[in-house]
Design a protein that fits this description.
Layout (H helix, E strand, L loop, with lengths): L1 H17 L3 E2 L27 H4 L5 H15 L4 H25 E2 L2 E2 L16 E2 L1 H20 L7 H26 L14 H6 L2 H4 L12 H29 L5 H9 L8 H10 L4 H10 L10 H25 L4 H8 L4 H12 L1 H17 L2 H6 L6 H10 L5 H26 L21 H26 L4 E3 L3 E4 L2 H7 L1 E2 L2 E2 L4 H31 L5 H7 L8 H11 L11 H24 L4 H9 L4 H12 L1 H17 L15 H10 L3 H26 L12 H8 L1
Antiparallel strand pairs: 1-4, 2-3, 5-6, 7-8
Keywords: Cell membrane, Membrane, Transmembrane, Transmembrane helix, Transport
Membrane topology: Multi-pass membrane protein
Subcellular location: Cell membrane
Length: 730
């Protein structure tokens, strides 16, 4: 506790003195001594330590709070008094910085009644490196005080993780959504009117069940629930089938099947929809074949529930696979071997032992598929037809001609309540039961192969789906290598050269800037997302504290609403000081991190459910703290979950469009925005060429992540070939 308080105070004080406090319009310098640039240029990104020369008295807490923390850390006082003073210094410092941040805006005082503190002729910019690092260090100082007072088993590391996770989720998830959702309680003139939300909720377009009586459509709420349930169940079944085949199917081409399963998640926007239309559209391969061979006119069946369901199954099955592959790989065979020892058949062992142990992963995969389906608006917009869902209703309320922020906020509230219901159901299904299969023994044995019947079932599900995936991609991606897709199919590399041309050592292609920006921002966001997700999973799985369930659900908030809503919410929350991030790459990175955080979290929690808490307790018994238990015991066993978090965070950052469409600028254009703009202009060849390069880059990154992180090995024994085993028995 004392060491944590000392170092957090030292870091906060150094950041306040040396790092640029404000983010000016022309950017901030990244060198550690950039804050001292005021010696030659008083207008350059001042550090908090310049308050004596520039009169910014409101930044005194940035100096006084960490200075007090240093004095307390070195003072010869009792543990209880030191913890109380740490808590006081960190808490009051954070409150003071928060108060001054929102009290002073772009034109001086933010409210007239602040004038009593004195005239304010200066403005305040958004925080820079110093303004971001000081509050973070003060939060750790406050966590050290909480640990010293007995919270979190008196472990400063656990307390710091809890405080950092809570603060980051509150700032970058809860705050933007609360500000946006408050519009549900405003009337058309912008005034507060609580009754307005009830009028919007009574809209018959939301709750109608007329389709049960033969009408063409039902309400958007029921459509969303139906689609989400089908997608959640379908993606979970497909993901489980692929995960079982890859890990226990004894297939020679298991590695290729693994990569094929993940392929849809590395696909930029519109490629899947385009491929489905090429296959099942009115002039698609299947429609033409049905008409020529059987005289059947399939019509526009792809536009509606079937098409949206098929597209979302393709898009979200990789999420279920990434969650379940970590759970299956981490399943220790000990209990299955015990079942076989008791003369249970392989089918009985799979039904009574394996599947129950996989329940946390199955429940988490269903939850993610359900929530992703509710939040997706790209596929329903392209293929929905008359099948309206809440995501499309919200999208048109935000960007359509009606521009009704109150309606969009009300529909977002409905989505959040539906996500809360799914979250509660998932918690209920996995509560009060143990799924531990990894204990402290050194050798967990060899995972048994799938029973013959289960293997045949998985193959009958996975192989047709894999074949359809291959055909879909071959048709869709071929458009980048023909002259004019649909009319002139002469092979050409013209689109690729136009996008990625290099002349005289200069990158002259049209897509270079957007691709480099996308890779850079995704590479920054991915490790942050994975680290925060694994830390939060460890915290929620191993620690009991007040508000844990609320905080765990709060992580799902940004996942449960359409990306368009998230983008608008971020613009509203981070467009003014102190968090003036709009127009920078920082707001895009923050959106990437907290939009994709739930997958890393759910994958980590599913894997944590299999690890016996006695391993953590043994570390504590041997004198290790929370950092030792997490870093030396739990983290090595979470390698599949780490890979899943890294993979998902990186590829979703590379392929996302809806959440960042309102956040990009000319300097921060992303590849997905470039692709969509080319699609809008009808330049499909150039768009597909960029998509092909993005897919190749992401596959390369996936391979590197797998190579660097590796796989978790529960047992020491290798699988024994069947022939050798029979020879040994003979």
């Amino acid at each position: 506790m004392r060491a944590a308080g000392f170092w957090s105070s030292a870091v906060a004080l150094a950041a306040a003195l040396l790092l640029p406090w404000y983010l000016l319009q022309d950017g901030i310098a990244a060198t550690p001594l950039a804050g001292l640039a005021w010696l030659s240029d008083p207008d350059f990104a001042p550090a908090a330590g310049q308050v004596l020369t520039q009169g910014r008295w409101w930044l005194w807490p940035a100096l006084l709070a960490p200075a007090l923390g240093l004095v307390v850390a070195m003072a010869p006082i009792g543990r209880g008094m030191r913890a109380a003073l740490f808590l006081l210094a960190g808490g009051l410092g954070l409150l003071a910085l928060l108060a001054q941040g929102y009290a002073i805006g772009v034109q001086g005082w933010a409210a007239p009644w602040f004038e009593a503190l004195g005239p304010m002729d200066d403005r305040q910019f958004g925080v820079g490196w110093g303004g971001a690092l000081v509050p973070a260090a003060l939060a750790v100082l406050m966590a050290a005080g909480l640990a010293g007072r007995g919270a979190f088993r008196r472990d400063a590391f656990t307390a710091a993780v809890a405080v950092v996770v809570a603060a980051s989720i509150g700032l970058f998830t809860a705050l933007p959504l609360v500000l946006l959702l408050a519009d549900a309680f405003r009337d058309a003139s912008g005034g507060m009117a609580v009754v307005a939300v009830f009028g919007r909720l009574a809209d018959d377009r939301l709750w109608s069940l007329a389709c049960l009586g033969g009408a063409p459509r039902c309400g958007a709420v029921w459509n969303t629930l139906l689609l989400g349930s089908l997608v959640g169940a379908g993606t979970t079944a497909l993901g489980l089938a692929f995960a079982l085949l890859v890990t226990r199917g004894r297939l020679r081409w298991a590695r290729g099947l693994r990569w094929l399963t993940v392929l849809p998640i590395v696909t930029p926007p519109f490629i899947l929809g385009l491929g489905l239309i090429l296959i099942f559209g009115r002039s698609g391969l299947v429609s033409n074949a049905a008409s020529a061979w059987f005289g059947l006119e399939l019509g526009r069946w792809i536009y509606g529930l079937p098409g949206v369901l098929l597209a979302q199954l393709f898009a979200f099955t990789p999420i279920a696979f990434l969650v379940l592959i970590g759970v299956v790989e981490g399943l220790s065979p000990t209990l299955e071997e015990a079942s076989s020892t008791l003369r249970a058949t392989p089918r009985e062992t799979f039904r009574t032992v394996t599947l129950p142990l996989l329940r946390p992963g199955i429940a988490n995969a269903f939850l993610l598929g359900f929530v992703e389906s509710m939040a997706d608006f790209g596929n329903p917009v392209v293929l929905g037809g008359n099948f309206g869902v809440l995501a499309t209703e919200i999208f048109f309320a935000v960007v359509g001609a009606q521009a009704d922020a109150g309606r969009a906020a009300t529909l977002s509230l409905i989505l959040l309540f539906m996500a809360l219901g799914a979250f509660s159901l998932q918690r209920w299904l996995t509560a009060r039961k143990s799924y531990v299969s990894i204990g402290g023994k050194g050798d967990g044995g060899v995972a048994p192969p799938l029973p013959a019947g289960v293997r045949r079932t998985c193959l009958s599900v996975a192989l047709p789906w894999a074949g359809l995936t291959v055909v879909l991609y071959l048709l869709a991606l071929s458009g980048g290598f023909v002259e004019v897709w649909g009319r002139d199919h002469t092979p050409t590399l013209r689109h690729m050269v136009k996008a990625f041309d290099v002349q005289g050592g200069q990158l002259t292609g049209l897509a270079w800037n957007s691709v480099i920006t996308t890779v850079t921002l995704a590479a920054i966001a991915a490790p942050i997302t994975a680290a925060l997700g694994i830390a939060a999973a460890w915290l929620f799985s191993r620690t009991r504290f007040m508000g844990r369930g609320v905080l765990e659900f709060a992580t799902m908030l940004s996942f449960a609403v359409p990306g368009t809503v998230i983008g608008v919410a971020y613009l509203r929350a981070f467009n003014l000081p102190p968090l003036e991030l709009a127009g920078t790459g920082a707001i895009i990175v923050a959106c990437f991190v907290f939009r994709n955080l739930p997958v890393g979290l759910r994958s980590g929690m599913a894997a944590m459910a299999q690890i016996d808490p006695s391993l953590d307790e043994a570390s504590h018994t041997l004198g290790g703290g929370g950092v030792d238990a997490f870093g030396r015991v739990v983290l090595p066993l979470l390698r599949p979950a780490i890979v899943a978090g890294l993979v998902y965070a990186f590829v979703r950052a590379m392929t996302t469009i809806s959440a960042v469409i309102f956040l990009v600028t000319a300097d921060t254009e992303l590849a997905t925005v470039f692709i969509v703009n080319r699609v809008i202009n009808g330049d499909y060849g150039l768009a597909i060429a960029v998509a092909v390069v993005l897919i190749a880059l992401m596959v390369l990154m996936l391979g590197l992540a797998q190579l660097l992180v590796g796989r978790r090995r529960i047992g020491r024994r290798a699988a024994v070939p069947a022939v050798a085993a029979r020879g040994a028995v003979a």
